[in-house]
Amino acid sequence: MGQVIEGKLDATSLKFGIVVSRYNSFITKRLVEGVMDGLSRHGAADEDITTVYVPGSFEIPLACLKLARSGRYHAVIAVGAVIRGATSHFQFVASECAKGVAQAGLQTGVPVIFGVVTAETIEQAIERAGTKLPNRGFEAALTAIEQVNALKAIPE
Ligand code: INI
Question: Is 112 in a helix, a strand, or coil?
Answer without folding.
Answer: strand
